[in-house]
Amino acid sequence: MPPTLASLVHHSALKLTVRAGEDRLDVPVRWAHVSELADPVPYMEGGELLLITALKLDADDPEAMRRYVKRLAAAGVVGLGFAVGVNYDEIPGALVEAARDEGLPLLEVPRRTPFLAISKAVSAAIAADQYRSVTAGFAAQRELTKQALTGGPEGLLAALASQVDGWAALYDASGAVVATAPEWAGRRAARLTADVERLRERPAPASSVVGGSGTSDNDDRVELHSLGTGRRPRSALAVGTAAALGTAERYAVHSAIALLTLTTERSRSLQAAEQRIGAAVLRMLLAGEPEHARTVAGDLYGGLLDAPFRLIVAETVAVSSVRIAADAPTRVPSAAALAAAADTNGDPLEALTEVVESAAARSGEAVLVVPERERLVVLAADGGAAVTACGEYAVALEAARTREQASAGDEDELVVGVSAPAGPIAAASAYKQAEQALAVARRRGRVHVEHEQLASGSVLPLLADDAVRAFADGLLRPLYEHDATGRGDLVASLRAWLARHGQWDAAAADLGVHRHTLRYRMRRVEEILGRSLDDPDVRMELWLALKATTSAE
């Protein structure tokens, strides 16, 4: 504790006597200052014990003393020390009365106690308090380090909450609460998500103070600090207390920030090493060597290979080539996904990596993320938090694209393909499935397509591909050229006949011609194309070609 007027009064060597303000002696003293000015207020900062001999004061004038004492109190002076036996044998009654009226503590300083002794006592007490704070801070640092090594972030938060006599919470990069201490602080921490998101928008390191207005019993004073060494913070720390932090508590918070930064912000070399291991595991899986992959994965990724997983392949495409599909999902995206989708400045693949890794970290599951040239490959547990977060993020991007399609910029857009659940032995097939889903996502103008959706939809949207249309135009061109001469409507006849599954009477009725006329036209189709309509493959190709040209029209 810093020195107070009470501690100075009880100091045996100073022999101070209280003449007024006996009920306000517990206030801390920031410094002891000597001034004989008639108005020392311009030189005061607040918290001082002012020492005087009344050399230039008319201490017997009640009105002058009331004005003098009132200005001192308004300036934040916590006490007045009056030396007797110098200019006055005792403290003038006018000053005593003014001090009592204003409630300002007035101390009588005996002739044998020099002002220097009081200044030294205050200085020594302040130094001792600072030393105790530093010592307590180092002790807190040792305890926090021990907890970080043995209990991880959760243990560190518990130790920090104890040190500051409050609560602490850790947030991930998306602003979601990862851990709190004590547990009851979870609800309070959750209410600060919006403040954490605003903090993330500022360059690191950043901090802010929220709450503490005293309008309710639960209105804590909360400090928010960003964690991380990069341009954008990877996480944030919240510390809630009933009052402003003292010196020792401040040391503890700073130590916690450093330790949490070390535990949440992995070094570049470690990150690169993990990515190399992940890439090696993925290559072995795709090469059909699951046992070797499991050996290399070890404890880092081994758990992923013990249960069904999904492969996710993502890449970026130019925004000009993206069209919003009419069959885009209509699910309502989560608030966290909307926030992540709204913050897509920079590399879309990096943003997806942050979303997936944050979700996996919150749920405690492993996830393998491998940057592969111009794409990103993710291996994540089927039904796990990472796969779910990827889907929700894609839905949010779909919604954002739909709203902003008219004002689309030049940034690249994300497309994602997801495989069906698979095991290590089928990793190569899962990768091919993810690539197929990715290709369909590009063609359909979708952000996210799962392989299971390919079979549930129609094949017709796939005919919009330029290569398919070119094939269809080449196949049907002789028939169109024939019809252009006015020698018969072969294209329409072929379409009607195929639509009626080769039923002559029904197709002829649709066309309004005799069935013999239709038979003649189909023989002409065979002659012109050099293909037999008895071949089911030929009929299939012609039908798809007709569909492709119809959609192009």
TrEMBL record:
Signal peptide from the UniProt entry: none
Gene3D superfamilies registered for this protein in UniProt: PucR C-terminal helix-turn-helix domain
Record domain Purine catabolism PurC-like: where: 9-126
Region annotation Disordered: where it falls in the sequence: 202-223
Domain of life of the native organism: Bacteria
Residue ranges occupied by any PucR C-terminal helix-turn-helix domain in the UniProt entry: 490-548
Pfam families recorded: HTH_30, PucR
Name this polypeptide is given: Purine catabolism regulator
Organism: Streptomyces canus
